[in-house]
Design a protein that fits this description.
mainly alpha, 3-stranded antiparallel β-sheet, 3 helices
Amino acid sequence: MKKIIRKIYNNSFLIVMFTALVILTGILLFGCAPAPIKPFKPEPIKFDESPVYSIQEDLDKIPKPAPIKRMYVKKLTDKSFEVVADKAEATHIMLAPKEYAKVGAVVKLAKTYKGLILDQETLINTYIDQINALKELYAMEQRKAEVYRELWISSENAYRQEQWEHKWDNRIHKAGLYAITIGSIVVMLLLL
């Protein structure tokens, strides 16, 4: 009887040591979960919004005509006029034909410039709006890429975690079956 007790005691000590070894190995292996994926994240590119084009600066750049030489005159009779130096005494202002033509040309040129510049302002602001729209589109595309990357990372991590858990479930079941088989063999040997 003592021999049987001693055999059981020696075998149970081996079983306890084996079980402790399996538990420690399991703790070490379960603690080593797969690392999550952390892919490269590029720096975001940001643009400053383009300012609106103002026409006033270009209007100020239009060359001003030379001052028109006026003649201040005072009407003496219906057909006679006298040139005076003080414009307070003058009753009329006269222009030489050359000066009068210059005034007409300057007015026509100014109207043309103003029309062209106003059209130019419209075109430039349309171009600026296109640039701003492209910047917004780029920002949306960049955000879309970030969201896609985040979704991909989360799904990849979930897949890896599921794979890892599945492998460990299989290993635990196999270890349990091996433990039951070995335990059955040990019990059979002890009973013999």
